[in-house]
Design brief:
With about 425 residues, the protein is an alpha/beta fold. The chain is about 40% helix and about 15% strand. It is built from 18 helices and 13 strands. The protein has a nine-stranded mixed β-sheet with strand order 1-2-3-5-4-6-7-12-13, with helices on both faces. Strands 8-9 form a two-stranded antiparallel ribbon. Helix 1 links the parallel strand 4 (about 50-55) and strand 5.
Length: about 425
């Protein structure tokens, strides 16, 4: 029996579904996928259209609502919302350092994880749609970031299940390989660094001082992880969100404390860094990150740690060279590097499986350019100007490639505009998809 919970302004209902691990073998091994239904209080029995929220990631569980918070407040005016814990995350059958060894060795783990990409997520959603809405029911999609990638896969594989689709910061390059993605990403990250240092020029010297210290002696984080120079640079992932530059600055200004042995990195700083860098709450983000770009028709070879390979083309991200040259140390962005599986205790047990995924070739395609060119579903998208995480040029090319897609390009918000805009981004998209804006 489903559990029903009431919070101020909302009614929440738990749903648990059995789905095949491999949808090509529907009677084979089954896993569980959890979803939470959210409806405005007083509308529990109303005939409302359904909205499926596809979370960012990969490997991110759906948000946990606290009443009518964030974008949900606007969505619940019009929709019954389903928050999906994508396979492997949250209350769905988990895939972590604790559970994956039950599959066997690294080869068995990697094979299992190969079924956790967008194509499987979409097929899970289709099974769920038929159970909740019936064979001919349709729902609206709202895809944030990686959820937008999944939306494009949905429109490629099963558009008959979709009434309308909205995407925020998630129009992927349909023909971009992993190397293409990162070759375009590093210059964007460099621009975000420049913007950060223009806002906080005092951070130039403060960051150099931290890097000098870590170059001599990497620090130990509270969870036992290692804070090396490259790990510290990875804090640049913050620079793509609306208040990320401020968060990074406040971390840096708390870096030092005078202890019995003199100046040392403070516990406050190290705990704050760990909260940003640890993958304990979402290991699939790291393990699967580059595989989300794997498509045999684009590049039949392996992704092969593309962010790490391509970084060599951008020597300005070499922190030790920056120290020698007297230039600002640049932070990196949304990149996953092989050394992360050595420094992060949550990833270390998964390093061999991650290596096998990085070596995997012939990934099945995730998008159908032909189906998207013939699209009949109303689609709208918010494209954030100079989005650090998703290339704007790729997004606009995809907008042109999807028949009927209407794009709204804005620099009012960063990549997290859906979450932080108080419903403004979603309201604009709803009005657009309904032809009211």
């Amino acid at each position: 029996m489903s559990v029903v919970i009431r919070q101020p302004g909302v009614v929440l209902t738990d749903h648990l579904f059995q789905v095949p691990l491999d949808h090509a073998e529907p009677h084979g091994e089954q896993i569980e996928v959890y979803a939470r239904e959210v409806v405005a209080a007083g509308k529990e029995r109303a005939e409302l259209p359904w909205l499926l929220f596809l979370q960012g990631g990969p490997g991110g569980r759906a948000g946990r609502p606290l009443g009518r918070d964030s974008w949900l407040d606007r969505a619940l005016d019009d929709y019954r919302v389903l928050l999906l814990d994508q396979r492997g995350t949250g209350r769905s059958t988990p895939a972590t350092r604790q559970t994956l060894p039950l599959r066997g060795g690294a080869a068995e783990q990697a094979e299992y994880l190969s079924f956790f990409r967008a194509d499987s997520i979409v097929r899970d959603a289709e099974l769920i749609r038929r159970q909740l809405l019936g064979d001919h029911g349709q729902w609206t999609l709202l895809g944030q970031s990686y959820g937008g990638f999944c939306t494009l896969t949905y429109l490629s594989l099963a558009p008959e299940g979709v009434r309308e689709a909205m995407v925020t910061g998630g129009l992927a390059g349909l023909r971009s390989s992993a190397a293409d993605v990162y070759r375009a990403a590093y210059p964007r990250v460099a621009r975000k660094n420049a913007t950060h240092y223009a806002r906080y020029p005092q951070d130039i010297e403060a960051v150099r001082r931290i890097v000098e210290h870590l170059a001599d002696a990497p620090a130990r984080l509270p969870d036992g992880g290692a804070l090396t120079v490259p790990a510290f640079q990875a804090l640049g992932q913050l620079l793509g969100s609306g208040n990320g530059s401020d968060t990074l600055h406040y971390l840096v200004e708390d870096a030092w404390v005078r202890g019995s042995a003199g100046l040392e990195l403070s516990d406050t700083f190290l705990a704050g860094v760990q909260s940003q860098l640890s993958f304990a709450g979402g290991p699939l983000y790291a393990v699967l990150h580059e595989s989300i770009y794997g498509q045999r028709s684009v590049d039949a070879g392996p992704t092969a740690w593309a962010a790490h390979r391509v970084r060599a083309e951008f020597p300005e991200f070499d922190a030790i060279r920056a120290l020698a040259d007297g230039t600002p140390v640049r932070f990196t962005g949304e990149m996953i590097y092989p050394w992360m599986f050595e420094t992060d205790p949550a990833l270390r047990p998964l390093s061999e499986a991650a290596q096998l995924l990085a070596e995997r070739t012939d990934w099945p395609d995730l998008y159908s350019p032909e189906a998207l060119a013939a699209n009949q579903v109303p689609v709208v998208a918010a494209v954030y100007h100079d989005d650090m995480y998703v290339d704007t040029a790729d997004s606009l090319a995809t907008a042109d490639a999807v028949r009927g897609l209407r794009a709204w390009v804005t620099n009012q918000w960063e990549h997290d505009g859906l979450r932080v805009s108080g419903g403004q981004v979603l309201d604009r998209l709803i009005r657009m998809v309904h032809g009211e804006a």
